[in-house]
Amino acid sequence: MSNLRILYKNIFDSYSGISMASGSQAIGFGLANMKDDTKSKTFRSTNLTNPKIRATWASAQEISGVALAFTNLIAGSTFQITLYDDPAAGTLLHDTGAIPVTYNYDPPVGFDSIGSASFAYGGGAHVSAFFNSVSGVERMEIELTSAGNPDGYIEISRIIAGKFWEPNDNADYGAKTDFIDTTTGVRTSAGDLVTDRGTITRVMEFSTQAMDSQDKAALNNLFRSIGKSQPLFISLVPGNGPITEEQLSQQIYGKFDMDLSVSLPFFQRYSSSIRIIEL
Q1: N or C, which terminus of the chain has less Cβ within 10 Å?
Q2: CA–CA separation, 272 and 233 (whole Å)
Q3: Which helix (H) or strand (E) is 184 found in, with range?
Q4: 260 CB-contact burial (10 Å; exposed 0-12 / middle 13-18 / buried 19+)
């Protein structure tokens, strides 16, 4: 079994209804913002103790992974995902329990938090939960806590939900995540270095050097489906437990940054390299 898991068909975007099961949304930062891939466009709730987001579908869905991309969740925060077979009542199909966030990075210099104002400069955090596939889902609820959050509100830019794909074999050793800083510097005639601060974006790169025919077909299907135009969520260290620094650093919400090339290094084994650039 692989540790690499990918969400690329986001059924959250096809919900038939979305509301707050508890708590409230801040004016100008409504729930519909979480269907927009502009990462600075967010949902906010000033309730730090139990805001609960409810999404419903008119027909049954299959879910095995849920990710919250570009959030301001800090250490001590929790999120809990529950799935039901009816838009209003029905039977509980799955409950992740409250998943704690155990780590957060310092805010970028010049910012007081990891909230949306800092997303372009390295702020924000992705959290996710993966579990055995659950079918017949017509309602998903996400409950959050973030007591002591310096922003005074909980903030989420994007929800990604659906059925994950994982290859039979893991990504090769040597997978890496780079920080790309667009900051530039100019040396003046007086010898001073004048810096123009740029944005910071992450890039994830990995290879799969020994895919079987099933994995090759699935990867081809994935790229033909979304190409470089649509986003996907990737985790190299997925789980359904506490969110650690390892998970924060090894997952990304972005797009393919290069064309897909699949080679045949030896009989019935296939090789490819993948590069994902963060939104």
Answers
A1: N
A2: 18
A3: strand 184-187
A4: middle
Strands 125-145 and 43-45: unpaired
Show the DSSP H helices in the chain as ranges.
213-226, 245-249
Asked if 86 and 101 count as a contact pair (C-beta separation under 8 A), the reply is: no
pLDDT level of residue 83 (50, 70, 90 thresholds): very high
pLDDT tens track for 39-76: 999 999 999 999 999 999 999 999 999 999 999 999 99
Q: Which of 231, 234, 243, 247 lies closest to 96, judged by CA?
A: 243
Give the number of C-alpha atoms closer than 13 A to the C-alpha of residue 211, restricted to the C-beta side: 22
3-class DSSP state for residue 31?
helix
Q: Within 13 Å, how many C-alpha atoms sit on residue 74's CB side?
A: 18
Closest to 175 in 3D by CA, of 66, 54, 273, 35: 273
Span 152-209, pLDDT tens digits: 999 999 999 999 998 887 777 888 889 999 999 999 999 999 999 999 999 999 888 8
Whether 165 and 237 have beta carbons less than 8 Å apart is answered as no
Q: Which two tokens stand for residue 231?
A: 């986003």
